[in-house]
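Hey, sorry to bother you again with one of my protein questions. I've been staring at a protein lately and its backbone has me curious. I owe you a coffee for this, so here goes:
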Amino acid sequence: MADKSSIEWTDATWNPIVGCSLVSPGCTNCYAMRMAARLEAMGQAAYAGTTKPSAAGPVWTGKVSLHRPALFKPLDWKKPRRIFVNSMSDLFHPAVRDQDILDVFTVMAIANLHDFQILTKRSDRMLEFLEQSDLLEDIYANWSTFSGGAREVEAWPLRNVLIGVSVEDQARANARRRFDLQDLAERGWRTFVSYEPALGPVDWTGWEFLSGLISGGESGPRARPTHPDWHRAARDFCAAHGIPFFFKQWGAWEVAVDRDNEDPDWRADYACKFDDSKPDICWLNLAGGRGFHGERFHVMRRVGKARAGRLLDGREHNDLPRRTAA
């Protein structure tokens, strides 16, 4: 948890839930696993037992719990800010109790000067929780317990809460849109997508309901490369439908050769200078494969997050959703 965050699309992080487990390919190199292990080693008891060592580094054990000392932290922050909820976990993990989720939503309702950003890979659980018919009454009752006096929620759905799903490829996009995020958007919730790490192409048709879309590549020591055309497709879809688009980062890789535009005669020294067996070189085509003859073949070069930067076709994209009027 931090009052300030290096994550480009938020101002602060808030982690009332600790622990998680792997659920899809986007989790493979999760930075939160490494951070949780580090926090446990530093003596933070809340993270004890949440990870275990493996040949690839720390991995989640599946132990998940409410970190109650962190629960009320946003009420101490007097300056309005965007707050990423559970940057180190998933609020809708199956091991999180409904009461714990209710506590988190109650704090967000009370702290309505802030905008809260929730991301999940468990969109089915999110829909199940938010479609409860008596949820608002439960929040009222919880509010009275927390504050000693009940107040009416400013608006329902909560205008200061943005709910989203992480997707990394077409399969995950399909699974987390239909009947989950789309249903919640139709119920009035503001919704967004984090297309990070982008590991494959996505057809965004059917996502016109979004309030925002964030895309980015993967960073870290085992980062996988991302194809520029995947992010261009997300950007162009957003532009066509008036959806705020934020390009977060390229991650650890940059384009070394865009063959169609820079080497149409295939004269580059692919066998030596751009040998795909080198650890800092990767061949990548539009479908996500490494075949030399694939469509929109690119040579990607590992250079690290700082050097790769976050310019998409020469410009930054920093648009984020704004809170809707009452």
